[in-house]
């Protein structure tokens, strides 16, 4: 997605060979126009799948997730990482280990919102080690719902998440695929910049 590639080139900061900082438009400050375009792109790619719910994980998945849901005309559900005072019964839960943070979070979604028969589009901001996406897949399975696709804003193709998640057989669409962050440079995967 050209607009996103341009934004990453202009504003992304390579912090190391593995970490890209995009706080100016995705992880802290949010660019609503870019999020709208991202939502339209996800909707265009998954419109034929009969999506009934978009599911993401707090917090940075919410902005692209809500825009995709708006375009598809569905609700957005965000999995919580911390226990909520008002969410206690009828919870689906999965363990998500973060290699980056070296901690395990129990993510949860209420059975009130994710239901048997739902066709679910999973959205997340980054695909790195794939653990968040695998956790979301687990929640959908527990609900007896169907994973209709996975949409990722930025995939770091040099980490193992892409391979792991594609091995599940679900369709994964990443709007920007980064091949390398070596030498302080962002290198996109060739042929990935289609629209
Ligand atoms: P995984 O979910 O793919 O297994 O990845 P990992 O455990 O490594 O990621 C942990 C957190 O770090 C996630 O956000 C993920 O989005 C983020 N992350 C991973 N790689 C990068 C990167 O190169 N740049 C940036 N900016 N973030 C990265 P989180 O802790 O859930 O944060 P948030 O959603 O609350 O913002």
From TrEMBL:
UniProt pathway: Purine metabolism; XMP biosynthesis via salvage pathway; XMP from xanthine: step 1/1
EC nos: 2.4.2.22
Biological processes, Gene Ontology terms: purine ribonucleoside salvage; xanthine metabolic process; XMP salvage
Residues binding xanthine: 20, 27, 156
Entry coiled-coil feature ranges: none
UniProt binding sites for 5-phospho-alpha-D-ribose 1-diphosphate: 128-132
MF annotations from Gene Ontology: xanthine phosphoribosyltransferase activity
Localization in the cell: Cytoplasm
Enzyme class: transferase
The keyword DNA-binding is annotated on this UniProt entry: no
Phosphoribosyltransferase domain residues: 33-157
Sorted UniProt keywords: Cytoplasm, Glycosyltransferase, Purine salvage, Transferase
One Pfam family this sequence matches: Pribosyltran
Record-stated family: Belongs to the purine/pyrimidine phosphoribosyltransferase family. Xpt subfamily.
NCBIfam families registered for this protein in UniProt: PRK09219.1 (NF006671), XPRTase (TIGR01744)
Subunit structure and binding partners: Homodimer.
Annotated protein name in UniProt: Xanthine phosphoribosyltransferase
Gene name of the record: xpt
């Amino acid at each position: 997605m050209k607009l996103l590639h341009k934004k990453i080139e202009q504003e992304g900061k390579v912090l190391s060979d593995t970490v890209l900082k995009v706080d100016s438009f995705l992880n802290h400050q949010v660019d609503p126009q870019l999020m709208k375009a991202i939502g339209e792109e996800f909707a265009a790619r998954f419109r034929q799948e009969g999506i009934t719910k978009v599911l993401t994980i707090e917090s940075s998945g919410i902005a692209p997730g809500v825009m995709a849901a708006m375009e598809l005309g569905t609700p957005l559900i965000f999995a919580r990482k911390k226990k909520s005072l008002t969410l206690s019964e009828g919870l689906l839960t999965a363990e998500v280990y973060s290699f980056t943070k070296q901690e395990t979070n129990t993510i949860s979604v209420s059975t009130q919102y994710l239901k048997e028969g739902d066709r679910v589009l999973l959205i997340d901001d980054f695909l790195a080690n794939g653990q968040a996406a695998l956790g979301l897949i687990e929640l959908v399975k527990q609900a007896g719902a169907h994973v209709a696709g996975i949409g990722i804003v930025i995939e770091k193709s040099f980490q193992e998440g892409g391979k792991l998640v594609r091995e599940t057989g679900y369709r994964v669409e990443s709007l920007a695929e980064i091949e390398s962050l070596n030498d302080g440079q962002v290198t996109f995967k060739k042929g990935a910049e289609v629209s």
